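yo, Xyloside xylosyltransferase 1 is done. seq:
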Amino acid sequence: MGFLRLLAKIMGRVSTFRSYQFVLLLAATLAVVAFYYFGSERHSFSSTTKRIKQTQANSNRNDADLTLDTRIAHLAESEEGDLKTGDQQYHALMMFTKVDRSRSLQDKFRVAMLSMVKHGRFFEGEVLVLHFVSDQASQELGERMLQEFLQDASFKYEIFFHDVVELTHELFPIVEAMQKHFSAGSGAYYSDSIFFLSVAMHHIMPESLTRIVQLDLDLKYRTNIRDLFQEFDKFPPGAVMGITREMQPVYRHTFWQYRKENPNTRVGEPPPDGLPGFNSGVMLLDLSAMRASALYNQLLKPNNVAKLAEQYRFRGHLGDQDFFTMIGMEHPELFYSLACGWNRQLCTWWRDHGYGDVFQLYYRCDGPVYIYHGNCNSPIPDD
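structure:
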């Protein structure tokens, strides 16, 4: 403790200094103490780590400099070293806002993470990178919860927390025009922008990030999440994302006026021949394909959004899910149809609200269930 001896020697000479000199000397001494104490601290799971700015030099795109507030790394079966730069990364993102205020969200997060860890298996040289879009209070809670949930993980992982305020600031100019068509209430509210993150993520994330899976919190995994990423390899040419169909007659209802004016339409009809719309609980986003698709980026322009909304007499309230559903009616080639078992929705609200006669046509899901989705607070079956 050499710095303590130094401190004692300095303090012994305090009487020879005037008061302002003493204040300056004390401040310098405290700085030395802080350097020794914090500089020598070994980073643990819960310690705040370096802030990383990811920038795109020589880029004409107005990319955001994503601030990664916390970087937490785990090496399976080893606490030494660091993740290798050559590791193959599997990126997954979850919204994690206002979790500190909701016991229900905390319980859902527990189920999701524990089931993910239980079934998760990755090969040597692979790492699961978990991204959480969060406010500060939820981040602090999330770090503590993840310490518990991930302690038995058999795979390498990294965790990043992204500041929801900064992301909202970057998203709003891109998605403002579409919010009035796909948000609850009227107008385009700044805070609603975050619900359109998946729509414009290819503009927000750095170009080095080429694929990412976006997941709701209210999920329960029944298989290895690594298998979900293999679905990217099944995308047909031109597809920019993989997504599961909606399993309730939500869009049979939402497109009511268009369906009335076009009685022979497939829009809003149940599978296998109809177009029931999409559910955004599990989405595979091919960010490279989204960036490269002239068609997809044209559809983001305000005049094209308004044109389609008018054409289909569409007014939704489910954010990105509504946007993808609407453009999917016109351009199904942009989407890879993910098997219903990857997002087995459990909500039955519409069965009891006017659509009981056709409900089962939408709700039916044949084949194995890989991920349960407890949407609208539906209970998830036990293992």
